[in-house]
């Protein structure tokens, strides 16, 4: 008779980490999102301009 291993429950390390209160706040804080939007656009523009020279 072949024995199959019994599946065990998941450990806490198997789940992704939960965001902190600061992370949740910054995700919803629209002034910070505007700043990040412009920083990202500047990075993209730098790549585009660099490729056309």
Describe the structure.
The chain is mainly α and 53 residues long. The chain has two helices and no strands. The chain has helices at residues 21-28, 30-51. The protein is elongated and about 70 Å long.
What does the secondary structure layout of this molecule look like, with pairings?
Blueprint: H1 21-28, H2 30-51
Helical fraction equals 55-70%
- Spatial extent as radius of gyration: 23 Å
| Main sheet attributes: strand count, strand direction, barrel closure | none
Q: Would you list the SSEs in sequence order as H and E? A: HH
Provide the low-confidence segments as ranges: none
Q: How much β-strand is present in the residues?
A: under 5%
The rounded distance between the terminal residues' Cα atoms is 71 Å
Mean pLDDT: 90
E-strand count: 0
Structural class of the helices, strands and pairings?
mainly alpha
| Principal-axes shape call | elongated
**Count, helices:** 2
């Amino acid at each position: 008779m072949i024995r199959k291993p019994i599946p065990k429950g998941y450990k806490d390390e198997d789940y992704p980490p939960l965001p902190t209160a600061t992370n949740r706040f910054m995700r919803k804080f629209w002034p910070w999102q505007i700043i990040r939007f412009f920083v990202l656009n500047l990075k993209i523009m730098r790549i585009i301009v660099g490729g056309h020279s």
